[in-house]
Protein backbone atom coordinates (compact mmCIF):
# COMPACT_ATOMS: atom_id res chain seq x y z
CA UNK A 1 0.00 0.00 0.00
CA UNK A 2 1.46 3.32 -1.13
CA UNK A 3 0.26 5.15 1.98
CA UNK A 4 2.07 2.75 4.34
CA UNK A 5 5.31 2.90 2.32
CA UNK A 6 5.34 6.70 2.10
CA UNK A 7 4.41 7.02 5.76
CA UNK A 8 7.28 4.76 6.79
CA UNK A 9 9.73 6.88 4.79
CA UNK A 10 8.35 10.02 6.45
CA UNK A 11 8.64 8.34 9.86
CA UNK A 12 12.31 7.49 9.33
CA UNK A 13 13.31 10.88 7.90
CA UNK A 14 11.15 12.80 10.37
CA UNK A 15 12.34 10.67 13.30
CA UNK A 16 15.99 11.37 12.50
CA UNK A 17 15.45 15.11 12.00
CA UNK A 18 13.36 15.50 15.17
CA UNK A 19 15.87 13.45 17.19
CA UNK A 20 18.61 15.89 16.16
CA UNK A 21 16.45 18.95 16.87
CA UNK A 22 15.35 17.70 20.30
CA UNK A 23 18.76 16.32 21.35
CA UNK A 24 19.65 19.38 23.52
CA UNK A 25 16.20 19.23 25.17
CA UNK A 26 16.68 15.52 25.87
CA UNK A 27 20.09 16.10 27.45
CA UNK A 28 18.77 18.86 29.72
CA UNK A 29 15.75 16.73 30.65
CA UNK A 30 17.91 13.73 31.51
CA UNK A 31 20.11 15.85 33.78
CA UNK A 32 17.07 17.43 35.46
CA UNK A 33 15.52 14.00 36.14
CA UNK A 34 18.71 12.67 37.73
CA UNK A 35 19.12 15.76 39.91
CA UNK A 36 15.47 15.82 40.95
CA UNK A 37 14.88 12.25 42.08
CA UNK A 38 16.39 8.80 42.45
CA UNK A 39 15.92 6.34 39.65
CA UNK A 40 16.59 5.78 35.95
CA UNK A 41 16.10 8.39 33.23
CA UNK A 42 13.54 6.31 31.38
CA UNK A 43 10.22 5.20 32.87
CA UNK A 44 9.99 1.57 33.90
CA UNK A 45 6.46 0.80 32.73
CA UNK A 46 4.77 -2.31 31.31
CA UNK A 47 4.74 -2.97 27.59
CA UNK A 48 2.19 -1.23 25.39
CA UNK A 49 -0.13 -2.78 22.81
CA UNK A 50 0.99 -2.09 19.25
CA UNK A 51 -0.26 -2.95 15.78
CA UNK A 52 -2.22 -6.23 15.63
CA UNK A 53 -1.90 -6.56 19.40
CA UNK A 54 1.89 -6.95 19.39
CA UNK A 55 3.45 -5.81 22.67
CA UNK A 56 6.44 -3.47 22.67
CA UNK A 57 8.60 -1.47 25.06
CA UNK A 58 7.73 2.22 24.86
CA UNK A 59 10.54 4.67 25.63
CA UNK A 60 9.54 7.57 27.83
CA UNK A 61 11.34 9.93 30.20
CA UNK A 62 10.57 9.10 33.82
CA UNK A 63 8.20 11.69 35.27
CA UNK A 64 7.29 9.78 38.43
CA UNK A 65 8.98 8.24 41.45
CA UNK A 66 10.53 4.77 41.05
CA UNK A 67 8.14 1.79 40.71
CA UNK A 68 5.21 4.18 40.34
CA UNK A 69 3.22 1.90 38.05
CA UNK A 70 3.49 -1.14 40.34
CA UNK A 71 2.97 0.99 43.45
CA UNK A 72 -0.39 2.31 42.25
CA UNK A 73 -1.66 -1.21 41.58
CA UNK A 74 -0.15 -3.10 44.54
CA UNK A 75 0.26 -0.66 47.47
CA UNK A 76 -2.81 -0.86 49.80
CA UNK A 77 -2.29 2.83 50.66
CA UNK A 78 -3.04 3.71 47.05
CA UNK A 79 -6.11 1.49 46.65
CA UNK A 80 -8.51 4.44 46.64
CA UNK A 81 -6.31 6.35 44.19
CA UNK A 82 -6.18 3.30 41.90
CA UNK A 83 -9.97 3.08 41.88
CA UNK A 84 -10.15 6.75 40.94
CA UNK A 85 -7.55 6.11 38.23
CA UNK A 86 -9.63 3.31 36.71
CA UNK A 87 -12.89 5.24 36.94
CA UNK A 88 -11.30 8.28 35.29
CA UNK A 89 -10.26 6.42 32.11
CA UNK A 90 -6.77 5.65 33.46
CA UNK A 91 -5.89 9.27 34.13
CA UNK A 92 -5.39 11.24 37.36
CA UNK A 93 -5.69 15.02 37.47
CA UNK A 94 -3.62 15.13 40.67
CA UNK A 95 -1.12 12.29 40.93
CA UNK A 96 1.13 12.23 44.03
CA UNK A 97 3.61 9.95 42.24
CA UNK A 98 4.64 12.67 39.78
CA UNK A 99 7.92 14.46 40.60
CA UNK A 100 8.39 18.23 40.38
CA UNK A 101 10.37 17.89 37.15
CA UNK A 102 7.79 15.35 36.00
CA UNK A 103 4.99 17.92 36.20
CA UNK A 104 6.85 20.17 33.77
CA UNK A 105 7.86 17.56 31.22
CA UNK A 106 4.40 15.94 31.25
CA UNK A 107 2.62 19.27 30.78
CA UNK A 108 4.62 19.98 27.63
CA UNK A 109 4.90 16.34 26.44
CA UNK A 110 8.69 16.39 26.75
CA UNK A 111 8.48 12.95 28.39
CA UNK A 112 7.17 11.58 25.07
CA UNK A 113 10.22 12.61 22.98
CA UNK A 114 12.11 9.30 23.48
CA UNK A 115 9.30 7.61 21.54
CA UNK A 116 11.16 8.79 18.44
CA UNK A 117 13.34 5.73 19.12
CA UNK A 118 10.21 3.58 18.81
CA UNK A 119 9.42 5.29 15.52
CA UNK A 120 12.86 4.54 14.11
CA UNK A 121 12.58 0.91 15.32
CA UNK A 122 9.22 0.57 13.55
CA UNK A 123 7.08 -0.06 16.64
CA UNK A 124 5.36 3.31 16.28
CA UNK A 125 4.65 6.04 13.75
CA UNK A 126 4.92 9.80 14.16
CA UNK A 127 1.12 9.96 13.86
CA UNK A 128 -1.28 7.28 15.01
CA UNK A 129 -3.60 6.08 17.80
CA UNK A 130 -2.53 6.25 21.43
CA UNK A 131 -0.33 3.33 22.61
CA UNK A 132 -2.49 1.73 25.30
CA UNK A 133 -1.61 -0.52 28.25
CA UNK A 134 -2.97 -4.08 28.15
CA UNK A 135 -4.88 -3.74 31.41
CA UNK A 136 -6.24 -0.37 30.32
CA UNK A 137 -7.79 -1.82 27.16
CA UNK A 138 -9.19 -4.79 29.06
CA UNK A 139 -10.73 -2.79 31.91
CA UNK A 140 -12.04 0.07 29.79
CA UNK A 141 -13.77 -2.30 27.36
CA UNK A 142 -15.62 -3.75 30.36
CA UNK A 143 -16.66 -0.24 31.36
CA UNK A 144 -17.56 0.74 27.80
CA UNK A 145 -18.68 -2.53 26.05
CA UNK A 146 -19.58 -0.69 22.86
CA UNK A 147 -15.90 0.14 22.28
CA UNK A 148 -14.81 -3.47 21.56
CA UNK A 149 -15.20 -3.10 17.78
CA UNK A 150 -13.46 0.28 17.90
CA UNK A 151 -10.47 -1.24 19.72
CA UNK A 152 -10.05 -3.79 16.90
CA UNK A 153 -9.98 -0.94 14.38
CA UNK A 154 -7.44 1.00 16.44
CA UNK A 155 -5.12 -2.01 16.80
CA UNK A 156 -5.00 -2.44 13.02
CA UNK A 157 -2.62 0.56 12.85
CA UNK A 158 0.69 1.46 14.47
CA UNK A 159 0.34 3.69 17.54
CA UNK A 160 1.72 7.22 17.20
CA UNK A 161 3.83 9.69 19.13
CA UNK A 162 1.06 12.19 18.41
CA UNK A 163 -2.45 11.70 17.13
CA UNK A 164 -5.94 13.03 16.59
CA UNK A 165 -7.01 12.89 20.25
CA UNK A 166 -3.72 14.35 21.48
CA UNK A 167 -4.32 17.56 19.51
CA UNK A 168 -8.02 17.62 20.45
CA UNK A 169 -8.07 17.81 24.24
CA UNK A 170 -5.61 15.07 25.30
CA UNK A 171 -6.33 13.90 28.86
CA UNK A 172 -9.58 15.83 29.02
CA UNK A 173 -11.09 13.19 26.70
CA UNK A 174 -12.51 10.03 28.34
CA UNK A 175 -11.70 6.53 27.03
CA UNK A 176 -14.90 5.97 25.03
CA UNK A 177 -14.50 9.27 23.17
CA UNK A 178 -10.73 8.80 22.86
CA UNK A 179 -11.02 5.32 21.34
CA UNK A 180 -13.71 6.64 18.98
CA UNK A 181 -11.36 9.43 17.87
CA UNK A 182 -8.52 6.93 17.40
CA UNK A 183 -10.80 4.66 15.35
CA UNK A 184 -11.98 7.62 13.27
CA UNK A 185 -8.35 8.48 12.56
CA UNK A 186 -7.54 4.91 11.43
CA UNK A 187 -10.62 4.87 9.18
CA UNK A 188 -9.95 8.27 7.62
CA UNK A 189 -6.13 8.29 7.72
CA UNK A 190 -4.29 9.86 4.83
CA UNK A 191 -1.04 11.74 4.32
CA UNK A 192 -2.93 15.06 4.40
CA UNK A 193 -4.66 14.12 7.68
CA UNK A 194 -1.28 13.12 9.16
CA UNK A 195 0.29 16.41 8.09
CA UNK A 196 -2.56 18.42 9.65
CA UNK A 197 -2.10 16.55 12.96
CA UNK A 198 1.66 17.11 12.87
CA UNK A 199 1.11 20.83 12.27
CA UNK A 200 -1.21 21.04 15.29
CA UNK A 201 1.10 19.04 17.57
CA UNK A 202 3.66 21.79 18.42
CA UNK A 203 0.90 24.02 19.85
CA UNK A 204 -0.54 21.15 21.90
CA UNK A 205 2.97 20.52 23.21
CA UNK A 206 3.73 24.18 24.01
CA UNK A 207 0.34 25.07 25.49
CA UNK A 208 0.07 21.89 27.59
CA UNK A 209 -3.72 21.98 27.18
CA UNK A 210 -5.37 18.94 28.68
CA UNK A 211 -2.16 17.42 29.97
CA UNK A 212 -1.87 15.76 33.40
TrEMBL record:
Domain of life: Bacteria
Keyword vocabulary terms for this entry: Membrane, Transferase, Transmembrane, Transmembrane helix
Coiled-coil annotated spans: none
Signal peptide: none
Pfam families assigned: Bac_transf (PF02397)
Tagged with keyword Protein biosynthesis: no
InterPro entries: Bact_transf (IPR003362)
One MF term in the entry's GO annotations: phosphotransferase activity, for other substituted phosphate groups
Domain Bacterial sugar transferase: 7-206
Membrane spanning stretches: 12-33
PANTHER family, per database record: COLANIC BIOSYNTHESIS UDP-GLUCOSE LIPID CARRIER TRANSFERASE (PTHR30576), UNDECAPRENYL-PHOSPHATE N-ACETYLGALACTOSAMINYL 1-PHOSPHATE TRANSFERASE-RELATED (PTHR30576:SF0)
UniProt family annotation: Belongs to the bacterial sugar transferase family.
Name the record gives this protein: Undecaprenyl-phosphate galactose phosphotransferase
Organism: Candidatus Gottesmanbacteria bacterium GW2011_GWA1_44_24b
Taxonomic lineage: Bacteria, Candidatus Gottesmaniibacteriota
